[in-house]
Automatic annotation (TrEMBL):
Membrane topology classification: Multi-pass membrane protein
UniProt source species: Eubacterium callanderi
Annotated protein name in UniProt: Amino acid carrier protein
Principal location class: membrane
One example GO MF annotation: amino acid:sodium symporter activity
Cellular component per GO, a single term: plasma membrane
Location in the cell: Cell membrane
Keyword list, A-Z: Cell membrane, Membrane, Symport, Transmembrane, Transmembrane helix, Transport
The keyword Cell membrane is assigned to this record: yes
Residues spanning the membrane: 13-32, 72-93, 99-116, 149-170, 190-209, 216-237, 249-272, 317-340, 360-384, 404-425
Sequence similarity: Belongs to the alanine or glycine:cation symporter (AGCS) (TC 2.A.25) family.
UniProt-listed PANTHER family: AGSS FAMILY TRANSPORTER, SODIUM-ALANINE, TRANSCRIPTIONAL REGULATOR, LRP FAMILY
Keyword Cell division: no
């Protein structure tokens, strides 16, 4: 058995039915546990994203390294990446167009998961030796579990998997997608793209979280609006195909075995494959349940864990329910899903999305997708470096180790730009699954076995609207 076959086999095991049940099941449980507050207060959460930070944000109650908006943008930088362009296209080929529905379903319940992760991250964060905030699931496990050895073990495993995953989901995959898109569109050799990415990453990453926050706060809003507008234009041009495309999306999402019909006649998939690829690619894209985004939430200047929890959970909304939906509808309305290239292979990944945009706006479509991939993927590299850095800091509290990590992480982008796509995807998926396991256990344990009014677990720390103000409702769980 070759190395790629081994990686694929391990990936299939990690992302088997048990992982799907654990991921979606945790989201369902937390949604019910919170009495659907993440859904009910989504409007407030979205408004909070664009609300000016409190004037007294530099007080102890608002301690942190970056603003709540920059924290969300850093998290979005890590989530809005190739998963929104390459991942959606891959899911719709391997799982059929119905995979998009399962991406939506996992994202809806992922709102509660992302909220809970972020609340715990802010609650249990601490200040490191450099005066910066350090937080995330590993600190919640270490400080929140009453059984200390278990919490410390899970924290170690999560941090280890997160460091490894940062080189997969946050680096190799992103660099690979950028180099592939640039080569196909502009004919630039992959090694040149790799060198440019390495230099740019070093320039930004050496400045730490404040540098990352500033760059992401600038790039992310621009790239998201740019891609959204272009996608809407394509959908409008192909509007006559949209109704049929939507029908096929929902039909194949719940069909035991079906052919994709008008939106991809050669795509054959079952409900289980749609669920498997939809959930896997959905989590790859929005990262709800992985425990990564809370690491950025812990760096925010905020007066209460739940407030930042609401702000950070909108990342799942913007990522999957907005950006991924645009990509999915563009592909479904284009008529290119299920078509083959000159070599007789199905179009998939970035090439499928490019062809979908080209179906409406011609060669400009390839340019738009390429620019989108470049911006999305590069910002993801920046965001995930911070996740890996903080995880490494937990394992090895050394400033020198962090600086070495930043340099090595930047250099790895070069290798990612020249690595075979399927191996990269399988490796990234596997690391995602492994780091999600201790994080989901943490969420469940702190809300079933160890609820306490003294600690602000996500079940005792929720906001309700009261005369236009937010008030904390603490209630004891029996």
């Amino acid at each position: 058995m070759s190395f790629s076959e081994i990686v694929a086999a391990v990936n299939d095991f990690v992302w088997g039915p048990y992982m799907l049940v654990l991921l979606v099941g945790t989201g369902v449980f937390l949604t019910i546990r919170l009495k659907f507050l993440p859904w009910r207060n989504l409007g407030y959460a979205l408004r909070s994203v664009f609300t000016r930070a409190p004037k007294d944000e530099n007080t102890k109650e608002h301690s942190g390294d970056i603003s709540p908006f920059q924290s969300l943008m850093t998290a979005l930088a890590a989530t809005i990446g190739t998963g929104n362009i390459v991942g959606v296209a891959t899911a719709m080929v391997l799982g059929g167009p119905g995979a998009l529905v399962w991406m939506w379903i996992s994202a809806l319940f992922g709102l509660s998961t992302k909220y809970g992760e972020s609340v715990l991250a802010v609650k249990y964060r601490e200040t490191n030796s450099s005066g910066e905030m350090a937080g995330g699931p590993m600190y919640a496990m270490k400080k929140g579990f009453k059984v200390k050895w278990l919490g410390s073990l899970l924290a170690f495993l999560f941090s280890l998997f997160a460091v490894i995953a940062s080189f997969g989901i946050g680096n190799l995959t992103q660099a690979n997608s950028i180099s592939d898109a640039v080569q196909n569109t502009f004919g630039v050799p992959t090694w040149i793209t790799g060198v440019v990415l390495t230099v740019l990453a070093l320039i930004v990453l050496l400045g730490g979280i404040k540098s990352i926050g500033r760059v992401c706060g600038f790039i992310v809003p621009i790239m998201a609006v740019f891609y959204f507008a272009a996608g809407i234009l394509v959908i409008i041009i192909n509007f006559h195909n949209v109704p049929a495309g939507i029908v096929e999306i929902f039909r194949m999402a719940f069909s035991p075995q079906a052919v994709a019909g008008g939106v991809g006649g050669s795509i054959i998939a079952s409900m289980l494959s749609a669920m498997r690829w939809g959930v896997a690619r959905g989590v790859f894209s929005n990262e709800a349940g992985l425990g990564s985004a809370p690491i950025a939430a812990a760096a925010a200047k905020t007066d209460h864990p739940s407030r930042q929890g609401y702000i950070n959970m909108t990342g799942t909304f913007f990522d999957t329910l907005v950006v991924c939906t645009i990509t999915g509808l563009v592909i479904a309305s284009s008529g290119v899903l299920g078509t083959i290239d000159a070599a007789g292979e199905l179009y998939t990944g970035a090439n499928l999305t490019i062809r979908a945009f080209e179906s409406a706006i011609g060669p400009v479509g390839a340019l738009i997708v390429t620019i989108g991939i470049m911006l999305f993927a590069f910002s993801t590299i920046l965001g995930w470096e911070y996740y890996g850095e903080k995880s490494l800091e937990y394992l090895i509290p050394s400033t020198a180790a962090v600086k070495i990590y930043r340099f090595v992480f930047s250099v790895v982008t070069f290798f990612g730009a020249t690595t075979a796509l399927q191996i990269v995807w399988d490796f990234s998926d596997t690391m995602n699954g492994l780091m999600a396991i201790p994080n989901l256990i943490c969420l469940l344990v702190l809300n079933i076995l160890e609820p306490d009014d003294e600690i602000l677990t996500l079940s005792t720390c929720v906001f309700d609207m009261d005369d236009g103000r937010l008030v904390v409702t603490a209630r004891k769980i029996k």
